[in-house]
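With this grant's support, we have settled on a layout for protein records. An illustrative entry appears below exactly as we store it:
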Amino acid sequence: MIKPATPLDEAARLDTLRALNILDTVPEERFDRLTRLARRLFGVPIALVSLVDADRQWFKSCVGLQASETPREVSFCGHAILDSEIFLVPDASLDARFHDNPMVTGEPGIRFYAGCPLAVTGGSRLGTLCLIDVVPRTFTSDDLLVLQDLARMAEQELAALQLATTDELTLLSNRRGFLALARHALSLCARTKAPASLLYFDLDRFKAINDRYGHDEGDRALCGFASMLKQTFRESDVIGRLGGDEFAVLLARTTPQASTEALHRLQRSVHDFNRASQRGYEIAFSVGEIGYDPARHASVDQLLRDADASMYDDKRRGWLAA
């Protein structure tokens, strides 16, 4: 058996998948309708909407199979997400990659597999719409087109979920997306006893920018600050626009000293941005910086509350200094 390789964009792919907040959710008719239709159109016993997590494939919709997930290392879908084209296995018992796979030698006795990768905005392939049969099969060019059409419908449903977790203006995670990613990051830190920090930002005098220069200019300021956050922090950090002019960054596996150093880099970036832009106003922010304490922060919401309070202390000090 050959285990599936890891996609080149694996870190971003997993972040996108987890931000959807779809893993381990209950069945939904919009996905079940597609797998029922696929099974009927192709006359196969099993049809799945499979999402490939770090070490498992989890089935958002599963018709004809009792399992809700299987290990990623034995999955056919783990191979399918490595390319944008439909992944076909006419007879798994004759394929060097799968002939001794436990899903082939044991239940459900896979022989035929066809999986169309499911991609979302940004290009990450999160899983597949796939067909499974217990006898070998061939696939015609018409069959490929029909499976692609069904997969595009599944992608549309995933895209609707993605819109619900992405801030339309800045393209950062919105509050819902940020919370989903932050919960996962903090659970990893808790298990491995790794440090983490949360930075909570609020733009200073942002209302004055809107009032004096208009909302288009206010949007431009928000996008500029979002861009600086993305450029300053690591791809592994969780960055979100929580609403209005409030932003947050969760730095997992990061010491307080490293978090403070990153904050200083951001302050330099903002200074350089203001000097170069010459738009009649300057972007400025107040920030709350809180280290993750598992004994005190049982949830992301509690960590956010502490960081929010710290941010307002910083803002009050700015008012007093002014």
Observations:
- DSSP finds ten helices and ten strands in the chain.
